[in-house]
Write a structure and sequence with these properties.
With about 290 residues, the protein is α+β, with helices and mostly antiparallel strands. About 35% of the residues lie in helices and about 30% in strands. The chain has an 8-stranded mixed β-sheet with strand order 1-2-3-4-5-12-6-11, sandwiched between helices. The chain has a 5-stranded antiparallel β-sheet with strand order 7-8-9-10-13.
Length: about 290
C-alpha cells in the first residue's frame, strides 16, 4: 500500500538496489543485462556513487520496508536542473509512488532557470514529465555497424587534454546553459576520449566511447558533424556497433551523418525541456548527464 511507502534520501548502501531497478526498467531484455561485463556493472554503479558525492540532495529512494522499489537522481549544474535517473519497480507502478518520488527530485531544482530530462518511451514517464510542465521533444536513435568506407579521410579534430575542460565548459554554457562540471571529468575517467575541434566557423567538443558519442556540443553544424564522424571512427573493430542517441528535430546534421555512415534509425523517447536553456543545437546529450 502507498501509506506504507517511505521516500527517503539515497545512501551508498542503496547503490546495488538502484542499479537493479534501473536495469529492469531500461534494459531491452534480461539477456542484455546478463551480457554486461563486471567492469560495466561496476562503472554504472560508480556513476550513482558519483552523483551521491556531487548531489546528495537530489538522490531519493522509495522503500517498502527494507525493500528498495524506486529511485530518482537529480542534478544541479550551475542554473540547470537535470533528471539523471527515474525508475520504479513494475510491481509498484500505478499507485502514485512514482509521482511522490519525482516530486522530491523536482524540489531539488528549486531556483534553477531551466530543466532537462532524457525520457524513456514509457507512457507513464512521459505523462509525468508533461504534467510537470516539461515540453517533450521527439527523438530518434541511430544504430548499427559503421560503413568504414563512409568515413571522411580528414577531420578537423584533435585529441583533447585536461587543459581543454574549460574550453568544453564554455561550449556547454553556450549550448545547454550550464557546464557539465564534475560529470565530464567522471566520464573521461572511465576511459572515454575527449575530442576537440576549432575552426574559423566555430568550435566544439565531443566525448567518444568505443565508436559512439556520449556528448557532442558545437557552435556550428559542420564542426559538430566532424566531431560525430570522429566518434564513429573510434569504433574498436570492423564489427563494433555504434549508437547515436537523442536526435531531436534540430539535429538534422547528425541524422545525415548517421545515415551516410550506414546506421539505421528508430523512434526513441523524448528529450523533455523546461524554462531557460541554451539552444541545444547542434548538440547531442548524454542520457545520464544530459
Amino acid at each position: 500500500m502507498k501509506d506504507r511507502m517511505l521516500i527517503r534520501p539515497m545512501t551508498e548502501g542503496d547503490v546495488g538496489a538502484a542499479y537493479s531497478i534501473a536495469s529492469d526498467a531500461f534494459a531491452e531484455d534480461r539477456e542484455e543485462v546478463r551480457r554486461r561485463s563486471p567492469e560495466e556493472v561496476a562503472h554504472r554503479q560508480e556513476r550513482y556513487r558519483h552523483f551521491l558525492r556531487t548531489d546528495p540532495g537530489g538522490a531519493w529512494i522509495a522503500a517498502d520496508g527494507e525493500n528498495v522499489v524506486g529511485v530518482a537522481i537529480a542534478l544541479r549544474r550551475e542554473e540547470v536542473w537535470i533528471l539523471s535517473l527515474f525508475a520504479l519497480d513494475a510491481a509498484y507502478r500505478g499507485r502514485g509512488i512514482g509521482g511522490d518520488l519525482l516530486r522530491h527530485a523536482l524540489d531539488y531544482g528549486e531556483g534553477c532557470k531551466g530543466g532537462i530530462i532524457a525520457s524513456s518511451t514509457h507512457p507513464a514517464a512521459m505523462r509525468s514529465y508533461a504534467l510537470a510542465g516539461f515540453t517533450l521533444l521527439p527523438t530518434l536513435t541511430a544504430k548499427g555497424v559503421v560503413d568504414r568506407r563512409s568515413l571522411p579521410e580528414r577531420l578537423a579534430v584533435r585529441e583533447g587534454e585536461e587543459s581543454d575542460l574549460e574550453f568544453a565548459a564554455d561550449v556547454d554554457r553556450r549550448l545547454r546553459g550550464a557546464a557539465h562540471g564534475p560529470d565530464l571529468s567522471f566520464i573521461l575517467s572511465s576511459g572515454a576520449r575527449l575530442l576537440i575541434s576549432e575552426r574559423p566557423s566555430g568550435r566544439g567538443y565531443a566525448v567518444a566511447w568505443e565508436g559512439s558519442p556520449w556528448v557532442v556540443a558545437a557552435t556550428a553544424e559542420e564542426v559538430a558533424a566532424d566531431l560525430l564522424w570522429a566518434c564513429l571512427a573510434s569504433a574498436p573493430g570492423l564489427e563494433a556497433r555504434s549508437e547515436v542517441n537523442w536526435l531531436t528535430g534540430d539535429q538534422g546534421w547528425a541524422v545525415r551523418v548517421a545515415l551516410e555512415a550506414g546506421l539505421s534509425l528508430e523512434v526513441a523517447g523524448p528529450i523533455c525541456v523546461k524554462g531557460k536553456l541554451g539552444p541545444l543545437a547542434p548538440y547531442l546529450p548524454s542520457g545520464p548527464f544530459l
